[in-house]
Design a protein that fits this description.
8 strands; globular; 37% helix; alpha/beta; 11% strand
Length: 234
């Protein structure tokens, strides 16, 4: 929906300090056209992605969700809208929930606090604990469908997988329901242009397959999300 962002995450092309990226937020008319095009191809569910920016308020997110649900063509309609956006406060999560969302997805990026603080030097996202407890606030606000994830390649993948499992256990113990999805995007070093002085840790294909197997065995009920950045062979 929009890639404006106040954060300066070292691994992200949309970071605030990147002056070369084109910033774009869809207008209502543009959003409608995007949704109609997807419906004509048979899509029934979407994930809507927002940067972290003052323009992307809970009210704005909720309004765009309602617009997507209201946009229909022939027999085509979007039946489930999932959200990938910044963590909100309790009232913000309640506002978004009222629009009828599916999953609210927040990736911790790295659960290793020293690594997290190094790659998130400025912006709202630099607050490790605010992000870590984001999905707990969401569930306290009534959203019982959440997605977790870690960006593999920032530090030892074993620590991140262990942390994902502990996050899962925490949600199960406190709210009696674990995450709907677990995502494990992997950094492509050639594209991580913000790491000139701090190269990411490469995760081999073998270890990548291994960690996916671990997650599947450990959390059999959860959807596992493989991103489209991975090669066909994987």
């Amino acid at each position: 929906v929009g890639n404006s962002c106040v954060n300066d995450c070292k691994y992200c092309a949309f970071r605030d300090s990147n002056q070369e990226v084109v910033r774009k937020t869809l207008t209502e008319a543009e959003l409608e056209q995007e949704v109609l095009a997807l419906e004509r191809k048979g899509h029934k569910r979407l994930i809507m992605v927002y940067g972290e920016h003052p323009s992307y308020t809970p009210e704005f997110i909720a309004q765009t969700v309602r617009q997507v649900y209201a946009t229909k063509t022939g027999n085509g309609e979007i039946r489930r809208v999932n959200i990938n956006a910044a963590p909100l406060d309790h009232e913000g999560f309640r506002t978004v929930k009222a629009a009828g969302i599916g999953t609210y997805q927040i990736f911790q990026e790295s659960y290793h606090q020293e690594t997290y603080e190094r790659v998130h030097p400025t912006g709202l996202k630099s607050n490790y604990l605010w992000r870590l407890h984001g999905l707990s606030r969401a569930m306290e606000a009534g959203i019982d469908d959440v997605g977790i994830g870690a960006l593999l390649g920032l530090t030892d993948w074993r620590f991140e997988v262990m942390s994902l499992l502990h996050h899962t256990i925490h949600l199960e113990d406190r709210f009696n329901v674990g995450p709907h999805t677990i995502s494990f995007p992997r950094i492509e070093p050639a594209l991580a242009t913000g790491f000139a002085d701090n190269p990411p840790v490469r995760v081999s294909d073998r270890d990548f397959k291994r960690l996916i197997a671990i997650l599947r065995l450990a959390v059999p009920y959860t959807g596992l999300i493989l991103t489209c950045r991975e090669p066909v062979e994987i």
